[in-house]
Amino acid sequence: MEEKKKKKFSKDILNIIRTTMRNSIELTHIADNKANVLLSLNALMLTFLIPITIPYFNIIEEYRLTFPLILLILTCVITIYIAALVLKPTKFSQNHKNLKKGFMVSPFFFGNFYKMNREEFGLYMASATLQEEQVKGHLADDLHFIGSTLGKKLELIRLAFSIFLTGLFLSIFIALSCVYFYG
C-alpha cells in the first residue's frame, strides 16, 4: 500500500514539473513577442524618422531640435539592440561540452543532443532514463534552464521598455522646451 502512495506522489511531482515547464515555455513565447513588438516599433520609428527629418534639417537647427532628435534615434537604436538580444538564441555549447566529458545531461532538451546521430541518441536516451530519480533530475535541469533563460529575457525586456519610455518622453519634453524657448 505504501508502494502505491510513493508511485502516486512521484507522478504528481512529474505532473507539476511538466505543468511548470509548459507555463515557462508559454511565458518565454510572450517575452519573445514583447521583444519583437519593441524591435518592430523602434525600427519603424527610425524608418520614418530619418527620411522625414533630412529635408527639414534647417528648421531642426533653427529650433535647436538636434539634441532631442539624436536622443530619440539613440533610444531607438539601443532598444532595438536589447530587443535583438532577447530574441537571440542561447548557446548550447556548455551542456554539449559536459556531455563529451562524460557527465549525464538531460536527453529531453534538444540542445544537448542535436549533434548526435540517431544511434548515439538512442543509446544515450536509454542510459539517461534508467532510473526514475535520474529522469526527474533531467526534467528539473530542463526546468531550471528554461526558467533562468526566461528570467534573463524578462530582465532585458524590462530594461528595453525603460530605456524606450525614458528616451521617448525625454526627447518629447526637450523638443517641446526647445520649441517654446527658441520658437
Task: Give an overview of the whole structure.
The protein is mostly helical. It has one domain (2-182). It is built from 6 helices and no strands. α3 runs antiparallel to α6. The longest helix has 52 residues, at 2-53. The N and C termini lie far apart (86 Å).
Order of helices and strands: HHHHHH
Task: Give the overall shape, derived from the CA principal axes.
Answer: elongated
Roughly what fraction of the amino acids lie in strands? under 5%
For the sheet with most strands, the description reads:
none
Number of strands: 0
- Helix content percent band: over 70%
Q: What is the end-to-end distance?
A: 86 Å
Overall mean pLDDT stands at 87
The number of domains is 1
Number of helices: 6
Classification by helices and strands: mainly alpha
SSE diagram, text form:
Elements: H1 2-53, H2 57-62, H3 66-87, H4 93-100, H5 118-128, H6 132-182
State the gist of this model.
It is built from six helices and no strands. With 183 residues, the chain is mainly alpha-helical.
Comma- or semicolon-separated keywords:
single chain; 183 residues; mainly alpha; 6 helices; 0% strand
